[in-house]
Design a protein that fits this description.
By secondary structure, this protein is of the alpha/beta class. It is built from 8 helices and 18 strands. The strands form 4 sheets. Strands 5-6-8-7-13 form a 5-stranded mixed beta sheet, covered by helices on one side. Strands 10, 11, 12, 14 and 15 form a 5-stranded mixed beta sheet that branches. It catalyses: a 3'-end 3'-phospho-ribonucleotide-RNA + ATP = a 3'-end 2',3'-cyclophospho-ribonucleotide-RNA + AMP + diphosphate.
Length: 366
Amino acid sequence: MKMDSGSVEIDGSVMEGGGQILRVSAALSCITGSSINITKVRAGRSTPGLRPQHLSGLQLVSDLCSGSLQGASIGSTDISLTPGKIQSGNHTADTQTAGSVCLLLQVSLPCALFSDSSSQLCLKGGTNAEMAPQIDYTVKVFKPIVEKFGVHFDCDIRMRGYYPKGGGEVMVTVNPVKELQPVIMTERGNITKIYGRAFVAGVLPYKLAKDMSSAAVRTIRKEIKELYINIPALQEKEKACGNGNGIIIIAESSTGCVFAGSALGKKGVYVDKIGIEAAEMLLRNIRHNGCVDEFLQDQLIIFMALAKGTSRIRTGPVTLHTQTAIHIAEQLTQAKFTITKSEDELSSNETFIIECVGSGAANKHL
């Protein structure tokens, strides 16, 4: 670990060049104790610099590690974080917009694992928002897989919040770990179960949820005939703030792999299209015979980098988000990643094995 040898310089515009660089660097800074200085934050984006959700995520990490944060304001393109000791207990982050609570969890969960006792993270913003995982993805896909690393957290959805108002609230309880175990996921097995939820909230008519669900089921049926597909249509009542509609469809395999496809309603988009979009996303992610979908790939990199031992995960095409997370993880830890293409006779699409010799981060506080 690079301790106290001055701060690590990170170029926020490299590769994917988005908020993910901030999340991975801030979390690793907090855990390794290395100060970081990130320049050119989101330089190529239509609205460069920090947005409310990035700012609240950085403040949350700084709060978690009693750190000091410079340059933390909306639109800022240069920030630095000098971490202190990781504090357990209660922490709150509020994007005050529909900024994603799932992205707040992405940045804070790894940090809370390395504190001295359990932490409660109260995260406020959008729970089912564009450009981010839906909270249902976090609970149904991310959670069971990340638990294979030895992570334990609970997620209580107190209120759902949608674009543009937000207003959602999720209470996450995280237990610390001594160290993370490596994970091997190389055999996909067969798809054994497909289920999901189609929802409407606020003033939107219930029929929209039913239409999304049946369009999704029809689309999946064309390709997968032998499984019962259960996607109930739900009207969100008490626990929803604002108006929204969307769908998430989850597939599970015989070896415990979990995949998803999801979509959210947008003004002027016919609801059948939303159902079809989610179904096609799911099908695309189970055709390649990898063990994780394209969205989980990059979210697992930080855990592979911190684990003690060698992890191996089979994926479909490696995303730019994943390559970016690897680049940052190798800058801030001793982890070593290799990606190998594997020829797979079962599927026309090639798969890849992402292998990581983890840095074996140990929790100094336990």
